[in-house]
Amino acid sequence: MDQKKGTENVLLDVDFLQKLVVGIGEVSEITGVPARKIRYWEEKGIIQSEKEGEGTTRRYNYLNIKKILLIQELVEEGYTLDSAAKKVEDRMENLNEAFRKLATLATDQKDDA
Known about the structure:
Layout: H1 3-7, H2 14-19, E1 21-23, H3 24-31, H4 35-43, E2 59-61, H5 62-76, H6 81-112
Helix pairs in contact: 5-6
Pfam families: MerR_1
Domain HTH merR-type: 24-90
Keywords: DNA-binding, Repressor, Transcription, Transcription regulation
């Protein structure tokens, strides 16, 4: 199997996305956002790491990696950090609400069957 073919639909792999938690170094490498900037954004409350205890490496899940990418993109387009963070938070809430409705609809349809 072609490696690209096997990974092109990774966004549809819910199990993979739920397990995806990587360290700050990997996030920095993947996103191109310096680790120092990621730490600053966390200090400001824009993103949250999944720290297991004091002094442990910061680790980030899929949603926070997505936020980092979107915020960086908006900052590069000229948004301030605060306005980019707000816009991304609003966008994430809208998406979450839409998927909540889809889940309810799917459950209702399953119950009707």
